[in-house]
Predict the 3D structure of the following.
Amino acid sequence: MRIHSLPRSRAAGAALLAAALIVPLSACSAAQGITEKAADSKTVAAARKSAQALVDKASGPTVFTKPGDAFDITAARGKTVWVVTLDNSIPYVRAVLNGMTEAGRQAGVKVRVFDSKGSTSTAGKGVEQALATDAAAVVAFGINLSEVSGAVRAAQQAKVPVISAFNVDANAPLEEGAAGAVSVDFYDSGRILAAHAVTATDGPVHASYQHLPSVATFTALKKGLQDGFKEFCRSGCSLSVDDLNQADFKQGAERVTSSTLMRNRKLNWVFPAIDGIAQFTVPAIEAANRPEVQASSINAVTANLEFVRNGRVQSADVGNNNSWLGWAMMDRSLRAITGQKAATTVVPLKLFVKDNLKGKDLADEDALFDGADYRGGFTALWKTR
């Protein structure tokens, strides 16, 4: 599979990029499912109330939160930040880079992009090229630092900070050698999807999660789903896990969906790991003539948001603003260049459902994310002498 054939994504960016590196696994039903036993009515009602509270919060207005204190960016002005990407042909990657370039213009910093064209060995050469020229900082976007460890060590020796962007879950420790990181909370994405399924279903939820293994961010998503089921679905619910073959995930999603629907007549919910999988899961559910089965995923891809708005099987989607991510990457780079303490910037998520998509231009990210003034928020933190 060529990574640039994947659809446009607003969340799980590193997951999509890193997925290209997965060793193929056969589709299988994993033994990681959970089944919740019956609980008393008060416990069930309290859990459902908690689920609704999370859904209301996640689907409400997006708010900018400061990633740190204001700081002096004078020392960074006029310098160059290199961004080494795994594949620039992916539309979402270009959207992020556009946001970062826009932020750089505001800060007086140049942005240079190195496209690794799907090769991690080429990515290492990109970092080395940045070090050999004018890089004041390097952002490894969708490239785990362990894959370019030699180049990262060279950057440390040259005292050029390396930023990890969308490589690991926001709750994970900083990657070795990282001077900062930017990501989203994939674990919380799973909890949000679980909470929504509980509140949108009459009775117990019997679900299947379609997983792409070996990617840390997807594993965090799976853990969030599993914990969400335990937290919010306290009576008779079940969640199984189906591993997909990354080299054949499109046909694999269709096959796994069809077989799962056939063997599990109670199934009423499917969680594809990403919208790119959901685009094949949804037609398979429709073909099976199982109108009671719903789906939800992450990425907030335009085509999937159309599914949600039109009531076509997929009833929810969790995503983030790509331009906002680019601004966060510039902010974290500026902090590293000026000697600020290393930390992870978490870009906020939003739950999209039919109600909050009404009247929205699905191609307008800023409108989808409530016009939150992240640009003004970041700019206000960048001081100059």
